[in-house]
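Predict the assembly for these two chains.
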Amino acid sequence: MEGLRQQEFIEWADQYLRGELSPEEQSAFEKYCVEYPAYAAVFAEHKAFLQRLKQADARLVFKERLNKNAIKYAQESEIKEPAKIIRLWRKVQLNAAVAATIAIVSVFSTLWLTGYYRNLKKTTTDYSALRRDMNTVKRNVNAHNAAIKNIKSGKDHTETMHFGATGFMITRDGYVVTNYHVITGADSVHLQNHRGQSFKADIIFTNPEKDLAILHISDSTFKSSKNIPYTFKKQDSDLGEDIYTIGFPRDEAVYGQGYLSSSTGYAGDTLAYQISIPVNPGNSGGPVLDKDGHVIGIISGKQKGIDGAAFAIKTKALLETLNSIPADALKGNIVLSNRNGLSSLNRTEQIKRLQEYIYIVKVY
Amino acid sequence: MSKDKSDTNIDLEILRGMESGDNLAIHKLYTLYYPTIAKMVINNQGSREEAQDIFQETVMVLYDKVISGDFELSSKLQTFLYAISKRLWLKQLTRGESKYYKDQLDQLEDSLAAEDAIEEHMVTEANLLQMEGALLMLGEPCKTILHDYYIKSASMTDICEKFGYTNPDNAKNQKYKCLQRLKKVFFKK
């Protein structure tokens, strides 16, 4: 078999395989193969070789594509692959979320439990109400002592007194006014006079907006007192007026003297005066009287950080509050005294007369 | 149910795409199935590169199976690929070591099918590797001429123009010479 003939045959075979031959030529090729078995073998081999070539080529192409995709994918995922710290974050994300939740919950529940939110308003404004925290330290120690005693005795007695302030009578039959902030959250309210007698009192009416509370002494040991020596002044008083108060910033009555310094109260409150009297926690609810013994206001609070800026609720607000009490809440009508027994007395005499009508308000 | 169906549809689409050499199918194959397999390899003492290699070999096994025409999608493609790559990876792990992992292997349902497919792939690979090597060794323009003529079925006149031969007969001569050279390289090996 010479080379040239083989080349020609291969060419022919290619044409046959590619279907470039006419039907007659095709049958001629087939006949030729039958006639020359040697060429048939060459043809078969050539065909098989081409088959393999095609297969290999396709496979190569596929592999190449696969490789390209692999590279592409690797690049893509590399871009997607975030920095170490972010991967770390993804891992601990859940744990962090749980931890943060616990932290937040515990912080806020602790704040809530310790009464932070109840005090928040007070601590964020510079207005401070003047009720007195009664000997906190002493009380704590007492409570501890009581607890220790209770371990031995098995008795359950706890001292739960919370606050102290001042209140004063508005009628002779036992109506007393004090500040609303004094008696908020009270279990019971007791009034103690300057002789040390203590009476239980009911809360008749409260007016949180005006910060006023009307109490009534319900104790059977209480006897109606003599006529109230002071009257209530309905008109606004003038600036510079000489005024004084008696209150209980401690367990003894404390006299304070000063002047009316402004006709409006904290933040322009028209229902209060600004007064210049040294007041302290415990003065809350104390009467403010002018030189003739007219009650012109009720001490309610002072402004922190400013010297001598205390506030007193105007008598007008008290009268408005008294008028707004529903009749069925009252135990007998409120009849304000209209006879002033103080105007002719000097200050020390006035105070002597007054003391009887001013009470320590003890809130339990 | 509908999800299963759509999964199967995607699998079939990918298989069809592989047959026709569709680039998109390969990309899909990667995005859908590579992550699980990479995880498997990496979690079993493998590196990222090894995971790539295993996945590519797995795809080649599938490819051979598909091209030979006897592949039937009996389970999810994912399952099949996973079985194969697991088998391949364990083979690599146990290369030259004890056959400790063997027991573990045989628990796998699909391992038998996978093993068959891999064996088939090995045979095909052995058969074609020579040809692939020969094709790679064949320089230009022979490679392109043969590729154009036999694979793309381009006409002789086109090839003649493309490579600047004066007439088709010259091109035919060249093609024959190239074919002979390829055969020589192929059979010599």
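The longest strand of chain A covers residues 198-207. Residues 154-159 of chain A have pLDDT under 50 and may be disordered.
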